[in-house]
Amino acid sequence: MTERIDHTLRGRWTSTAGTLPPHALTWLRERIGLGDVRTPGRAPAVPESALDDAARAALADVVGPGFVRVDRDSRLGRAGGLSYLDLLRQRGDGELAVPDAVVLPASPEQVTDVLKACVEHDVAVVPFGGGTSVVGGVTALRGDKAAVIALDLNRLDKLVSVDPESRLAVLQAGLPAPEAERLLAAHGLTTGHVPQSYERATIGGFAATRSAGQASSGYGRFEDMVEGVRLATPVGEWRLGGAPASAAGPDLRHLVVGSEGAFGVITEVTLRVRPRPRVERYEGFVVDGWARGTALVRRLAQDGVLADVTRLSDVDETAVSLALSGGWKTAALKAYLRARGVRQPCLLILGWHGADTAAVGRKRAATLRGHRVVSLGTVLGEAWRHGRFNGPRQRDALMEVGVCVETLETATHWSRLTELRTAVRDALVDALGECVVMCHVSHAYETGASLYFTVLAARDAADPIGQWQVAKAAAGEAITGLGTISHHHAVGTDHAPYLEAEVGALGLDVLASVKRTLDPTGVLNPGKLLPGGLASPGDR
Ligand SMILES: Cc1cc2nc3c(=O)[nH]c(=O)nc-3n(C[C@H](O)[C@H](O)[C@H](O)COP(=O)(O)OP(=O)(O)OC[C@H]3O[C@@H](n4cnc5c(N)ncnc54)[C@H](O)[C@@H]3O)c2cc1C
Questions:
Q1: How far is the CA of 405 from the centre of ligand 1 (A)?
Q2: Domain extent at residue 465
């Protein structure tokens, strides 16, 4: 939990190659026909920095010469995010976009001055928080600019103020989540925001992408927590949010939250915070079949009694978890479930947070009242909690042995949830052939829920990048018209082509107008959010 990002090491999450147990390898060979493809280990090419001396000097004037870095490791360390394609590129497959320099400002004022210098010297700016984007959000694209910098917000790492009476905290944008939580814990407070990328992602990154954490049912999505923002833009600073609620026109904070660095750089976020729970209880349950499972989660959401963490796996994801756990305990569990009449087990993890055991007990009783689920006890729930940040480590290990492994997510209304799940699943299977597609619901609302897919296939050694691009495009087409292109990963470069289908041509024009106002020369994060940057509506 305390691991700080090592910016020199971006090709994997872990510093050592992970390993898979032998039974997992055997299972993979059987299920996806895994051959002997290894992840390439070539060092990616790093071109000469295109940042000219005048631009470098202007930036050094703002942040100090030691904080304008043009060395290979610094630049390579901020070359792209952590999608499967990013990881392949960082390991030497395909072309990697490397920033010309890394600039590390230490204050909101310095961020504004860096932007001014970049406008003056025709330099594109990619805001860089934890660099955990999985949609190409931090790809170092320069657009039509002479050079591109990664604007690393690492040094904006302070808890600025706390108002315990109002339950508000002002946090600087570069704070990684564990550090933000450590600082808030000293005041008995928490954000409750725990995404799987918790160990590395930052407060500014969460706000910029409308992130959703594993306990979103209890604490809300990140945008629900944002009371105010401080934004540095090329045309000056913009501060928003001074009241708990307001009827002063449209809520402009939502032009900033989710703006993915294309409208400005978030330097501070005022967050609604909560008392830190003293007791957390996680429990595993099994429901018979996807239809019954989603009906149950829908009832809980619509009755307002969802557990703080609510995660329902489909039959495939449950089967894979059981297969990979292996051993006599799994065999005994399967026999037990059969005896209880469960034919198609779907694993349901529920977690409740509270001030004390009695409070947690009351919440648990409210969730479970009147529902038929088979409890597997807290051991399974605790196992989930223990392993909940393991996804990226397992991905490292899977990549090592030649697996094409990636996730994608969407959301839709309850009435279309199963249709969407089937459409995405079928599209992925059609595109990839022999593969495993698993799905779970981890964020539920009164009107619908998210779907999160994990895909495993044998990597195509000849064209690994093309293999996933085809599958991702097929999934994108399947989603269009049925659900959102992103429930919490954001748009980045990867989803930009699908944004028009979701918000309409007029929606894109509105976004382009905002961009033109805040970033008239288009230095901010070219190619992200808006396809091609959209300097003017006519450019589309
Ligand atoms: C293994 C893994 C698991 C993940 N799990 C989840 C999950 O459970 N829930 C979830 O919501 N997401 C998840 N993500 C996606 C990612 O972690 C989130 O999008 C996160 O919010 C990004 O935060 P970051 O600080 O790493 O931002 P970055 O990756 O650095 O940046 C993301 C985008 O925001 C922009 N940006 C960053 N900081 C700022 C700023 N201060 N001002 C303006 N723009 C900025 C960047 O330019 C980029 O476009 C996961 C990613 C990985 C790799």
A1: 19
A2: 392-479
